[in-house]
């Protein structure tokens, strides 16, 4: 029932059925052939030679609010204003509903920035470097630097040894980190686990870098045995390594210490650059007891984290921190980065730093710690309830990402805005995800599931390959 | 009086004196040696072998609002809330003042988005492709696609032949356009005039492309004679060309038709890709009578324009439009762009499209036309007044960027937030720049100037090299 690449046409209803997986979530889907969607929830991935069908050649214009030329008498009749107000009011209602039913993306939707409404009337732009003022006076560098200082302290880098800026999103942080790595080691090979965010592979392509995809364990962590083998094949070239502090799909934390050990024991001492992609967990880990530490006291080069994820922010943003010596290398060696044109973007959103400043100030380390603990508690609650109900489920230690059997019905997936990959789905338990919300999700899931599997007459799929035998509740692995 | 690279330290007062030029404005400064600032306003640039001194090695922490841990009793005393409210109130006051005194940057600060305040409570994210919905429901694609349709119509590209998205800023548009060009012609050489925005040269470096800087005429336009000579040196490789629809400094519009003619007459037919950087004028030109047209009926590949400039928006944003066939080439050929991961960023600000949608709907083509005409009228007014006063000044036809002799006093430059390069400064006349504002600027300038040049006893500098002899009012060129 999907449109083929050949004719490139599909009507609206068809599109809704075959909606592709969310882009933010989906590093692997892109690369490999896939079975058609009907069988995706139940069948294995292997064995189907049919390649994934993507509709190209044509934009799919789903519902869109067209812009119309004002009529000459609009000012008099007020019709235009009325039309726009009605569009916005309806839109606002849908946002309320969509915000309520949301479990799959690691966005903290629980924020109140009412006090900042007064600033929406200003065109705030932190163009260029946070530490070098431009003549454009309507900026928020004083907030931005406050936020950067906070993060540098969190990751243990001295004020005069760090450089950083507030980015537009996690991808910009990764693009920056990998670029810094490449400029430090122009001939370096990029290593990243297969479960890294897709922006890492995009960076490799953009920057024309050789990139080695390293295997992962079932947990989603980088497989250091394979990492070592890959390194040994490129002994003569320095290593640029992306380390995931929480993978997108399984919330797996790469073992930073093991990665460093592998590098140093195999002849790469002082010949590597590590970028830590901490999109979500970069801000949670420091508050988890017994978690291995992400810190610049270890030989890492940069850390990035998203601002709209754990902190919560009306628009995407992120924080990028690196060692100032790397930026200096760039600035002095590279024509285009001289005078510290060291950010990826030029004009930069000046509102985002104020949102972050506001939340960090209000909550403080202690506030975040409380929220992290709540998230982990609630994630365990969800996992336990799913397990009790005989549903395959995995929860990595240190993570609030609960991975489980993909719901069979796409409508259900869409309703709860779950993020799915292959046979698995996940819920990311964020501060706005309460026990109440989880209960109503669980109840609905169980109700639907008894239909999907005809109260046990049909067997749910085996997902041991994705989450490990010990977590799988299929007929074979159920104990 | 500037800190040296060696010790890397400068105190706050020193920093203020040597504040570097604004990054957005400054493609050339970066590359060439510069005299120290004391002489910059009056002396020529050549002849001084002293290289520009940039302070590296250390972040300059100017005033910053530090984030402090909340005290245990903050909830009770309300001290923290009070502190934050006072910071924000003071900040708001300064924004009002800074917004009032602003002439140098092409940002339309005249907008009222009060009706959209109700949406600030939502985390709106258009992650990935605008035409492929993700499962994340809190998005604004229906607004984004409406805006894109409007721009595609403006630049005459059919709905089913364009692809585009709303970017974070002009730089993202340029990064995207140049990347598309490179993927279409992987072996292509990038050509851009010296006065192109610095993001173009940043792209070349990021993407590891060979880049040829083409000379410019005094007006700031690309010199097609030199362009031709450059092409002839690289006959065997396709050409990727950045065409400026309004340069940053002089508001010069490259002659698109002449660029195309030069390419086609010199053996590059069907072997070139043109990206039009229309940051500001991309949206003004269509409304200027007799202006050469930027349109996809000509063999161009992409156009980008900033959203926070002529339209006006609280945060930076931009619009990028390209031919869908190019995106299809990317999507099918390039692993990391399959399934149309075709944007530079992943998560994307969902508020920006709503701001743009709101203004486009309210103003329409007719509204923009009126505003463009007003800007051009006011720009001519400013130019005439400066000329009358005996001040060297240039205004390109079709442009609202008035280029004139750089004010001698940096305090004055900062006060009016002028953008300067070498011996010249400019005012960009935007819709929020009224005759009243220009008058108060002119009066203040003339008052100061009579001090700087001691009522005519000291001669103002010659800037014929920058703006042409006919526009220069120095002792030599004054008629």
Structure description:
The structure is a homodimer of 479-residue chains. Chain A is globular and about 60 Å long. In chain A, β10 and β11 (424-428) form a beta hairpin. Chain A is an alpha/beta fold and 479 residues long. In chain A, α7 runs parallel beside α8 (256-265) and α10 (351-388) packs across α12 (435-452). In chain A, the strands form two sheets. In chain A, strands 1-7-6-5-4-2-3 form a seven-stranded mixed beta sheet, with helices on both faces. Chain A has a four-stranded antiparallel beta sheet with strand order 8-9-11-10, with helices on one face. Chain A has helices spanning 12-17, 74-77, 79-100, 141-154, 170-184, 198-206, 224-232, 256-265, 324-333, 351-388, 410-415, 435-452, 464-467; strands at 162-167, 189-193, 211-214, 239-244, 272-277, 302-306, 318-323, 393-395, 401-405, 419-421, 424-428. Chain A is built from 13 helices and eleven strands. Chain A has two domains: 119-362, Type I PLP-dependent aspartate aminotransferase-like (Major domain) (Aspartate Aminotransferase, domain 2), CATH 3.40.640.10; 364-471, Alpha-Beta Complex (Aspartate Aminotransferase, domain 1), CATH 3.90.1150.10. At the A-B interface, α3, α4, α5, α6 and α9 of A face α3, α4, α5, α6 and α9 of B.
């Amino acid at each position: 029932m999907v449109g083929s690449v050949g004719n490139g046409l599909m009507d609206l209803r068809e599109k809704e059925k075959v909606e592709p997986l969310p882009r933010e979530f989906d590093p692997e889907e892109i690369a490999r052939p896939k079975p058609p969607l009907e069988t995706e929830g139940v069948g294995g991935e292997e064995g189907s030679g049919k390649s994934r069908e993507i509709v190209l050649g044509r934009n799919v214009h789903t519902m869109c609010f067209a812009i119309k030329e004002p009529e000459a008498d609009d000012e008099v009749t007020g019709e235009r204003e009325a039309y726009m107000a009605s569009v916005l009011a309806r839109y606002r209602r849908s946002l309320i509903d969509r915000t309520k039913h949301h479990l799959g993306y690691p966005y903290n939707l629980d924020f109140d920035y009412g006090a900042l409404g007064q600033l929406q009337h200003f065109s705030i732009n932190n163009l260029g470097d946070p530490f070098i003022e431009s003549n454009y006076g309507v900026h928020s560098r004083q907030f931005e630097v406050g936020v950067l200082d906070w993060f540098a302290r969190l990751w243990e880098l001295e004020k005069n040894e760090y450089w950083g800026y507030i980015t537009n999103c996690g991808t910009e942080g990764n693009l920056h980190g990998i670029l810094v790595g490449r400029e430090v080691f122009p001939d370096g090979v990029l290593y990243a686990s297969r479960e890294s965010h897709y922006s890492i592979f995009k960076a490799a392509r953009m920057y024309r870098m050789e990139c080695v995809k390293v295997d992962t364990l079932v947990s989603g962590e980088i497989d250091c045995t394979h990492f070592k083998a890959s390194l040994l094949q490129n002994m003569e070239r320095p290593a640029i390594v992306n380390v995931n502090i929480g993978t997108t799909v399984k919330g797996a934390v790469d073992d930073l210490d093991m990665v460093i050990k592998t590098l140093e024991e195999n002849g790469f001492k002082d010949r590597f650059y590590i970028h830590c992609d901490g999109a979500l967990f970069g801000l949670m880990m420091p508050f988890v007891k017994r978690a291995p530490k992400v810190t610049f006291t270890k030989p890492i080069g940069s850390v990035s984290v998203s601002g709209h994820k754990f902190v919560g922010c009306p628009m995407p943003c992120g924080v990028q921190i690196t060692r100032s010596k790397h930026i200096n290398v760039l600035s002095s060696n590279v024509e285009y980065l001289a005078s510290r044109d060291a950010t990826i973007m030029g004009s930069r959103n000046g509102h985002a730093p104020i949102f972050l400043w506001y939340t960090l100030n209000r909550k403080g380390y202690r506030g975040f710690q409380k929220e992290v603990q709540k998230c982990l508690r609630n994630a365990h609650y969800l996992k336990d309830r799913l397990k009790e109900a005989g549903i395959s489920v995995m929860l990595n230690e240190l993570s609030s990402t609960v991975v489980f059997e993909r719901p069979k019905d796409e409508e259900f997936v869409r309703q709860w805005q779950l993020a799915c990959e292959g046979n698995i789905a996940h819920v990311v338990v964020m501060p706005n995800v309460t026990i109440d919300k989880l209960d109503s999700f669980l109840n609905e899931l169980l109700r639907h599931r008894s239909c999907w599997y005809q109260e046990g007459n049909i067997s749910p799929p085996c997902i041991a390959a994705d989450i490990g035998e010990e977590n799988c509740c299929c007929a074979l692995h159920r104990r």
